[in-house]
């Protein structure tokens, strides 16, 4: 139960549209209980704003349990906030100091244009998947599930990569706004599985090409992406994607 | 407002609802049906435009499969990407009658378990088809690259899940829904790249366009620009999920809503069994009034966790201080055969009963313990961590308590809705050309859904049922092309625009979130886990009052022609205020207890649900007759040829 | 050819070549350091080493080596800089507040300043080559024993001693060698990661090994000028004669 009440000095990015100028606006939010999630705190800010007759802050969120990947804010300079392995929606306010100043910005990348306030357009990630992030498998034509055995370790490694929720925090955190971790997670997942091998070359070539076309930066191995990834997807998959790529093109 | 009809018995229609179940023996129905329905020739498929609303397991699978067949598909979702549909949050697994474990599973057994689990309120033929298709779903998903859990030999791993005595649940850690959804999403993206599917994200369906009695288009609001857009096609597939968020707090995503289905209902689609709502037993209890959602802890936890409360009421000691003899492991005590693995409705109600008796724990007294001490001692921490590590982490993050040391506190929460748009065997609603798939329809789970069955149904509908039944509909009808210039589209847009205008003009002071919370509170208290006639009558009154308050006090800042979450939410809540009446009314009319619908007046001496097969062995399908008008009840009588309805016993 | 070009210009490709050339250059730097260690052995040893480099493979090693190094350095700098420019376009509007997440991140001052340290190293390289390869700014001496032969060899040892007794040069060298360490601190590990050779258990080790190697290389190069500055008499004796007396330049 809420035993104490916290207040925060928020500095929130407000921007009316993709072309409009944006700026950080100061808000004081009060009556916040420590077990509230960061987004519930923003909900509360919005209630307070609406009651004052002001326009609420727009941000994306859906499942609020850290799996859909829709939410994502840069909080005090870190994508998804200061706690590792956490999404914005599962970050609790008890991890902040009462009275703390908290900067809230959208995920920034040239490939993620701002829609409004903290809402960004991440459709570039969908287009990367369209360029090959799948197995070409029509419904109805699959062999029995146990027809091809998959070594347990391979299945586990594939699952580690498949845990990606597509939130784009890797892009937001990367000093270069690179989408390598996102792209490599899918490449690596399907590279580990026998079902993904037949298309492996086409897949990695297509996805890297699309990633480059979308205007993401290059990967210079800072590893910031892994540090902010709510699912702790490893940059090992980036290494694997690179290997797959040069094998595909030069091999 | 006219309140006279609220408490009177419903007006009943004489028309018999025809579910169009194919003839023949149960196990041959689907195969024979598939073999006999007319087909659309490959060359003609691309001439048909199909509108698919929703990109979850049902919608995503349907859009991808229809794209593969060559139809022109327009696929809509409210999120920024189809990969975010709430199917993504399903944790536990997906059932299939593969019998890989050699433990006696079969299509019939899965069928039987599902009908029984649904408390004999589901349609036999549909459920059998679901069981029959379950294996093909696993095959399809494996081939897509879904990283299911494996044994060391490389074969697929299984586990048992609530309410089943065989191990038939396939899983991918605690993220099965996510992985299955991403499989479908991959197939969908492939079709987008191939040009057969056009993806229209950040769009919310706000009306159905019916021309000459058939569904021919939809009106959507572009959530970024606020524009009302119209799309025409030869059929509309609704895969928009359930209505658990009528309770405000639920395990569903905050954008889940019932507006698309409700507006189809208002255009003539019957709404079936709205009172069949599922309250999931293992959720993290509500802590604060301002909470925006409840978080599910997978049912799989009950495989190794033991549920208990203090044996004495009002025992305020910490769990560690309560010695074993003074604990009541009530599920093991009351249901020795199934113990902690009883179906969800049973487990939820038992938890509520314990809390009502004053044995609840935690600061609110509305929680029971789920204890892993015995399992930790038996299996060791590494095994438990491997099985449930991510769930334990999630729990600790939310509650700041370590479940390895302190028992989890859990309490039931709204999770899934078995009710939905009425559909026939072909998944078509009462509006020709409008199909409902997945949770949006009512068809397969009766009055209670078993764990790991929702994923199965969504994918079965999307991958393997709709491709056939939709083709049959189109082949029989041979539609003429239609454009959005047709007057019906303009009329629908005008009506939607007026509705939005009315909301914008209310000019009150209340944020819509607060009003929604109030509606949820009424529904949870009176139409939640247990219901009784007087409470339901009160609920109807309170919902009406709240509706008045809503239309006086609502405040929507900002404009229509832009991204405006307050407006989006207001539209959904306005629809919920209408729908909630139907929900309560259905619950009031069903004078029996079955599955997730529990009426205090109808229970066995031991307190279990008491069905009334004589009077209520039917699907209640409600017809919309106008705002504030008494809805008309249509009955689809259920016949059981292969399963004998009996008292559901898990003792 | 087309695939090669598209590979080269892809994000993965650019980093691939940067890494490949980088690793070769690290190899070169190691060899260079080992060769320089002859300085500790004195006048004769170092000039013998220089003579060996000049004349090995019938005099073919030097031009071949120089060409290879030109390609490596040029290629490395070009691809890395083009990638850096590409990265700058990745984010048009900067964050108002941004800080490293820590934890599993490999982000360091080193990783953030690769382009800067690289450019300084490149500038230094030009000076360095001018100084020691071509002897610009120094009086030209040839070793005594080669004086008057058909292959007069420059007295590199003497040039080194003279250079490292100039405080300005000394300062520049010390500063740049620290930067070299910084550059390699991220560069070595990063190259292996970029070539796709790193699996998780190996990664932490390589990350640390890379840093250790970087420090060792930097230290090695730092010790030399300090040694010369403090231990070697700038007045000689040297076993060389001015080139005017010895032979052709």
Written overview of the protein:
The complex is a heterotrimer of chains A (251), B (651) and C (249). Chain A starts with 5 loop residues before the first strand and ends with a helix. With 251 residues, chain A is α+β, with helices and mostly antiparallel strands. Chain A is built from eight helices and seven strands; from the N terminus they run ββαβββββααααααα. In chain A, strands 2-1-5-3-4 form a five-stranded mixed sheet. Chain A is elongated. Chain B has a five-stranded mixed sheet. In chain B, strands 6-3-2-10-18 form a five-stranded parallel sheet. In chain B, a hairpin with an 8-residue loop joins strand 21 and strand 22. Chain B is of the alpha/beta class and 651 residues long. In chain B, helix 3 crosses helix 12. Chain B starts with 10 loop residues before the first strand and ends in a 14-residue tail after the last strand. The longest helix of chain B has 25 residues. Chain C has one domain: 3 helical TM bundles of succinate and fumarate reductases, CATH 1.20.1300.10. The termini of chain C are far apart. Classes of the chains: A alpha+beta (251), B alpha/beta (651), C mainly alpha (249). Chains in contact: A-B, A-C. Chains A and B meet through helix 1, helix 2, helix 3 and helix 5 of A and helix 3, helix 5, helix 6, helix 11 and helix 12 of B.
Reading side by side through the largest sheet of chain B, how are the strands ordered?
1-22-21-11-17
- Spans of chain A of at least 5 consecutive residues whose pLDDT stays below 50 are none
Q: Judging from the principal axes of the Cα atoms, what is the shape of chain B?
A: globular
What's the end-to-end separation of chain A, in Å? 61 Å
Helical stretch tally of chain B: 17
- Biggest interchain interface, per-side counts: A-B, 81 and 89 residues
What is the CATH topology descriptor of the domain at 280-415 in chain B? Flavocytochrome C3, Chain A, domain 1
CATH architecture of the largest domain in chain A: Orthogonal Bundle
Number of domains of chain A: 2
Structural class of chain A: alpha+beta
How much helix, percentage-wise, in residues of chain A? 25-40%
Q: Termini distance of chain B?
A: 48 Å
Mean pLDDT of chain B: 95
Strand content of chain B: 15-25%
Helix content of chain B: 25-40%
- Estimate the mean pLDDT confidence of chain A: 96
Strand order of the largest sheet of chain A: 2-1-5-3-4
| Number of strand segments of chain A | 7
> Helical segment tally of chain A?
8
Assign the CATH superfamily of the largest domain in chain A.
Alpha-helical ferredoxin
């Amino acid at each position: 139960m809420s035993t104490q009440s916290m207040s925060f000095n928020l500095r929130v990015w407000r921007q009316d549209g993709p072309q409009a100028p944006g700026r950080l606006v100061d808000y004081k939010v009060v009556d916040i209980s420590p077990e509230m999630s960061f987004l519930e705190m923003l909900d509360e800010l919005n209630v307070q704003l609406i009651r004052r007759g002001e326009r609420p802050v727009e941000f994306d969120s859906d499942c609020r349990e850290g799996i859909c990947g829709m939410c994502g804010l840069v909080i005090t300079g870190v994508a998804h906030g200061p706690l590792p392995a956490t999404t914005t929606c599962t970050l609790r306010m008890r991890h902040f100091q009462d009275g703390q100043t908290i900067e809230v910005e959208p995920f920034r990348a040239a490939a993620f244009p701002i829609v409004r306030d903290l809402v960004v357009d991440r459709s570039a990630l969908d287009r990367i998947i369209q360029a090959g992030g799948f197995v070409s498998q029509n419904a109805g034509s699959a062999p029995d599930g146990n027809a091809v055995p998959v070594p347990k370790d391979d299945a586990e490694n594939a699952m580690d990569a498949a845990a990606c929720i597509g939130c784009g925090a890797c892009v937001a955190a990367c000093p270069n706004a690179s989408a390598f971790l996102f792209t490599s997670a899918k490449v690596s997942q399907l590279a580990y599985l026998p079902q993904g091998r037949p298309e492996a070359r086409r897949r990695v070539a297509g996805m890297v090409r699309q990633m480059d076309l979308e205007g993401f930066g290059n990967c210079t191995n800072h590893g910031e992406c892994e540090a902010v990834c709510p699912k702790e997807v490893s940059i090992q998959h980036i290494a694997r994607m690179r290997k797959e790529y040069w094998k595909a093109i030069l091999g | 407002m006219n309140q006279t009809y609220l408490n009177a018995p419903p007006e009943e229609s004489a028309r018999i609802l025809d579910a169009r179940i194919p003839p023949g023996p149960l196990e041959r129905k689907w195969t024979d049906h598939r073999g006999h329905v007319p087909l659309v020739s490959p060359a003609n498929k691309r001439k048909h435009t199909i509108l698919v609303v929703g990109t979850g397991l049902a919608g995503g699978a349907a859009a991808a499969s229809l794209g593969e067949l060559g139809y022109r598909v327009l696929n809509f979702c409210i999120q920024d990407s189809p990969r975010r549909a709430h199917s993504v949050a399903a944790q536990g697994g997906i059932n299939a009658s593969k019998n890989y474990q050699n433990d006696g599973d079969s299509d019939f057994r899965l069928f039987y378990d599902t009908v029984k689990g649904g408390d004999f309120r589901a349609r036999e033929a549909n459920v059998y088809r679901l069981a029959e298709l379950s294996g093909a779903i696993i095959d399809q998903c494996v081939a897509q690259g879904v990283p299911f859990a494996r044994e060391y030999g490389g074969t697929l791993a299984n586990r048992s899940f609530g309410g089943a005595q065989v191990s038939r649940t396939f899983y991918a850690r605690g993220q099965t829904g996510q992985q299955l959804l991403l499989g479908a999403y991959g197939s969908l993206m492939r079709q987008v790249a191939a040009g057969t599917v056009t993806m229209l994200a950040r769009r919310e369906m706000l009306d159905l366009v019916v021309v000459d009695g058939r569904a021919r288009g939809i009106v959507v609001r572009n959530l970024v620009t606020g524009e009302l857009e119209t799309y025409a096609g030869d059929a509309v597939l609704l895969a928009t999920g359930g209505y658990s968020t009528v309770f405000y707090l639920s395990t569903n995503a905050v954008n889940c809503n019932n507006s698309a289905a409700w507006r189809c209902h208002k255009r003539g689609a019957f709404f079936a069994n709205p009172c069949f709502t599922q309250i999931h037993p293992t959720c993290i209890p509500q802590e604060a009034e301002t909470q925006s959602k409840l978080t599910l802890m997978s049912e799989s936890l009950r495989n190794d966790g033991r549920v208990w409360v203090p044996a004495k009421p009002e025992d305020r000691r910490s769990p560690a201080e309560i010695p074993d003899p003074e604990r009541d492991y009530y599920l093991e005590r009351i249901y020795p055969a199934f113990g902690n693995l009883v179906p969800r409705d049973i487990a939820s109600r038992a938890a509520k009963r314990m809390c009502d008796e004053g044995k609840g724990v935690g600061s609110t007294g509305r929680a029971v313990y789920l204890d892993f001490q015995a399992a930790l001692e038996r299996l060791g921490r590494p095994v438990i961590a491997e099985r449930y590590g991510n769930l334990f982490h999630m729990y600790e993050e939310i509650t700041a308590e370590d479940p390895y040391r302190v028992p989890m506190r859990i309490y039931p929460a709204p999770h899934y809705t078995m009710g939905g748009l009425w559909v026939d065997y072909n998944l078509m609603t009462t509006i020709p050309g409008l199909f409902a798939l997945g949770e949006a329809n009512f068809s397969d789970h009766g009055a209670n859904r078993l764990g790991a069955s929702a994923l199965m149904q969504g994918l079965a509908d999307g991958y393997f049922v709709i491709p056939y039944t939709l083709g049959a509909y189109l082949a029989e009808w041979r539609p003429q092309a239609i454009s959005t210039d047709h007057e019906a589209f303009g009329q629908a847009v005008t009506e939607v625009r007026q509705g939005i205008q009315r909301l914008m003009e209310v000019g009150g002071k209340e944020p819509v979130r607060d009003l929604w919370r109030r509606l949820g509170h009424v529904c949870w208290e009176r139409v939640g886990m247990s219901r009784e006639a007087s409470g339901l009558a009160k609920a109807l009154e309170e919902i009406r009052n709240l509706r008045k308050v809503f239309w006086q006090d609502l405040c929507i800042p900002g404009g229509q022609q832009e991204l405006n979450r307050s407006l989006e939410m207001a539209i959904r809540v306005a629809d919920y205020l209408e729908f909630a009446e139907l929900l309560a009314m259905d619950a009031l009319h069903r004078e029996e207890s079955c599955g997730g619908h529990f009426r205090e007046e109808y229970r066995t001496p031991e307190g279990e649900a008491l069905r009334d097969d004589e009077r209520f062995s039917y699907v209640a399908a409600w017809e919309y007759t106008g705002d504030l008008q008494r809805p008309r009840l249509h009955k689809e009588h259920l016949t059981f040829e292969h399963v004998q309805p009996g008292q559901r016993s898990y003792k | 050819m087309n695939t090669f070009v598209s590979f080269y210009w892809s994000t993965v490709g650019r980093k691939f070549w940067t890494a490949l050339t980088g690793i070769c250059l690290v190899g070169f730097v190691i060899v260079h350091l080992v060769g320089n260690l002859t300085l500790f052995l004195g006048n004769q040893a170092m000039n013998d080493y220089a003579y060996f480099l000049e004349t090995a493979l019938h005099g073919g090693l030097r031009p071949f080596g120089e060409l290879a190094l030109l390609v490596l350095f040029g290629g490395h700098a070009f691809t890395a800089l083009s990638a850096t420019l590409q990265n700058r376009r990745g984010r048009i509007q900067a964050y108002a507040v941004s800080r490293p997440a820590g934890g599993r991140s490999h982000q360091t001052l080193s990783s953030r300043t690769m382009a800067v340290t690289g450019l300084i190293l490149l500038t230094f390289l030009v000076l360095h080559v001018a100084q020691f390869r071509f002897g610009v700014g120094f009086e030209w001496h040839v070793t005594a024993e080669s004086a008057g032969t058909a292959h007069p060899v420059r007295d590199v040892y003497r040039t080194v001693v003279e250079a490292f007794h100039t405080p300005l040069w000394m300062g520049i060298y010390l500063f740049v060698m620290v930067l070299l360490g910084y550059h390699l601190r991220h560069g070595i590990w990063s190259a292996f990661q970029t070539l796709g050779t790193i699996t998780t258990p190996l990664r932490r080790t390589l990350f640390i090994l890379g840093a250790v190697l970087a420090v060792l290389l930097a230290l090695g190069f730092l010790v030399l000028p300090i040694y010369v500055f403090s231990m070697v008499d700038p007045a000689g004796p040297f076993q060389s004669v001015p080139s005017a007396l010895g032979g052709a330049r």
